[in-house]
Amino acid sequence: MEIWVNPACTKCRSAVSMLDEAGAEYTVRKYLEEPPTAKELKAVLKRLGLEPWDITRTAEAIAKELGLKTWGRKPADRDRWIDALVSHPKLIQRPIITADDGTTVVARTPEAVQSVLPG
């Protein structure tokens, strides 16, 4: 299991604490320091069943600078969004947990974190 975190994020710290309390084995990826590649991001999006705009933090200053709210949200626009997320990882919603069984969640709630824990 891997969790993408920003250590300054309260929800990330909470998710890590829940994993620790459950005794889960996981690796931490500080995705601001080690941004995902376009290939990795596409794989995570596929596992999530989401589009890149679904996991974009549009309230971030860089999102406003880029004008993301005006960008198209059609399949033809997908690569543009992925390029923006790879170039500006701060735009990626967090934390994201990828479990070994293929389950992947944006773990912003305790229920989402629990959904990836072994039964």
TrEMBL record:
<dbReference type="GO" id="GO:0008794">
    <property type="term" value="F:arsenate reductase (glutaredoxin) activity"/>
</dbReference>
<dbReference type="Pfam" id="PF03960">
    <property type="entry name" value="ArsC"/>
</dbReference>
<dbReference type="InterPro" id="IPR006660">
    <property type="entry name" value="Arsenate_reductase-like"/>
</dbReference>
<comment type="similarity">
    <text>Belongs to the ArsC family.</text>
</comment>
<protein>
    <submittedName>
        <fullName>Arsenate reductase</fullName>
    </submittedName>
</protein>
<keyword id="KW-0560">Oxidoreductase</keyword>
<dbReference type="InterPro" id="IPR036249">
    <property type="entry name" value="Thioredoxin-like_sf"/>
</dbReference>
<dbReference type="InterPro" id="IPR006659">
    <property type="entry name" value="Arsenate_reductase"/>
</dbReference>
